[in-house]
Amino acid sequence: MNNIERRAEMEAILLAPLVKPRPGYRLTMAVLALIVAWGLYAWAGQARHGLVVTGMRDQVFWGLYIATFVFFVSASLTGTLLSAILRITGYKWQVPITRLAEVITGGALLGAAAMIVADMGRPERLFNVFVYGRIQSPLIWDVIAISTYLTGSLIYLYLPMIPDMAICRDRLGNSVSPFRQKLYSILALGWQNTAEQKKRLEKVMNVMAVVIIPAAVSVHSVTAWIYAMTFRPGWNTTILAPYFVVSAFVSGVAIIIMTMTFYRKMFHLEKYITREQYNKLGWLLLALTMVYAYFSFGELLPGGYKLEGHERELLNLLFSGQQAPLFWFSIFGGIVVPVLLISWPKTRTVAGLTVAAILVTVAMWIKKSYLLVVPTLQVPLMPFYDLGRYQPTWAEWSITLAGIAGFLLLVTAFFRFFPAVAVWEVAEEWGRAGMENSGSRPAPAAQLSKLKGGA
Amino acid sequence: MGLGKDSYKVWQNLLRAGIFTLSFGLANLVFVPGAMATGAFFQQIPESYERSCNLCHSQVPVLNDFGQTFKSSGFKFPALTVPASPPDATGTTGQPAEKVQVTVAKEKPQAEVNLIVPGSVVRGEKTQLKARVTVGGKPVTGKQVQFFEETELFIKGKMILGQAVTDEEGIAAINYWPRAAEERVALVASVTGDDEIRSAETAASLALIQAGSLVEHVEGLRVPFAGTWVIILLVGAVWGAYLYVVYNTLLIRKPGERAAQQEVFELKDKQQLA
User: What is the ipTM of this complex?
Assistant: First the structure.
């Protein structure tokens, strides 16, 4: 099979979901939409009755919402890592999965913003942040950083899509609705694959790859400083910002592995998302997990050695108290077991890596989000206070799950309209790898029409 | 409420609660002794005096003449001589006639106090308030002078600024940093009466020049050249890069249009040749 045929085959496979969704697609969307709808109902109740419907009170005033916000912010580093960092270091193995990573970044940032709104008892007061915000506040730093990073991520998501929009414009034709035809035409920006266009696109993508990295690091650092700028045990530590960045890398890689497996299966992308991507991501996850383990140890050791102030109570709570089961699960399930699964050749398979990624993702949510927020707030700061109590209510769970479902809905809906793999970039890589890339050729029209007609 | 078995139990419980509450309240009234407060100097009152709040106070905590005199003598009973005004049961001395040995003193002279303030002072800057105490035009030494600022914090009142003792020239002085937001501040100087002189009070007004800030920001680090502009510069640089990228991205359209036109021309040429 020569390069032209390979490209035609790739276009047919990657454009097929845009014409006719896979059988499980509608069911997936329906389930996610239902969860979101239920969450909106719970949120309406919360907006009406106030935050008293949650388990948060005066001592533990942050809970599931803020924990999930931190998790989403962590997840948003995946796009920058795969798309930008590996790009400027010259790696190319990640090209087939950059689109997935960038969409996850954008969706995660929107999910993070949604969780903040959910946490507000009076959401209309969000605008006060912009009107009355003080530059001295870490919350304002976070608003600036997240909005800057979100804008950059959306730009960086769109840029490599331009040639793919041209492919959709040229190949799909009447296979899609007139609205989508128009959409592809506008987003393609008149792309004709000329040398000048390619040069210009390469230049702006290189600029964005460099600019997006400090923006991403700043988001995670600033989110960490919201906690580190307080005097609370567990938060009042200088290691929190780099700790957040490292754990965000770990979360990001784990989420991309999970997403890769799901969409690879759903869209039949086995030829383009291969064992190479899984192997590389597996080793990356292993290395990052070890670094994360080191940071976790470094975070706990000084506090445990000195046991100054309220640190003793916090560590007791984590190691042997109320939060001990979650804490030890996050250590064994989030570090030890995944490291073993990835290290051992027999379990270093697609299934094994996916299981490791799921464990890491859940453990990250527990350790770096929930256990970061709640136990610190439970520790009483006044001498006559007891340990704070926090039990999330059904409303909180519903709204949180709706946030996660909303994120998945957004990502899944995106791939209904746009290709899940960067077609143009993959083809360019084939060309650079020595294969002849003499231009595109229309995909087998009969194949696309069949899909549209449902035959 | 119904008359069923459950409602009967509720009434029973209410009745029990009511009886308990009443008994507890009555027990408190009968068995708990009355609370008594004693003044700070109660133990110092000699036996010849009646130990009562009315000895020093017309109405607690306001001091009567006896109380004022006790205070100015350094809170010492042995140095005390009871003033000349005849004692009565509810009078200013608060001491019944049959209980006290009264030493009738000569009538004390009236002190005069003159408050010396500068013409104007910058708000927040240090200045000095002086008061000159004289009796019959002659300066008096060793007299306690209190300085007040008339102020209003929900209600009008006098805020004490400090106190000083007059020197050989009869002048008592304190340092003062005016912080009022108004253009003028009302000051009062009061000399405490003792066995030699009677108390006196005077008022004056001080003009304030409203300049500068009363609050000095001493918290945080002073880092040279660091400020909000650094954040604006960094964030601005990132957004500037975004604008540059967007501008260059939009320029992608033109080469595409040229290429499309070129294709059209080539196709026409081919058709003509054919």
Answer: 0.85
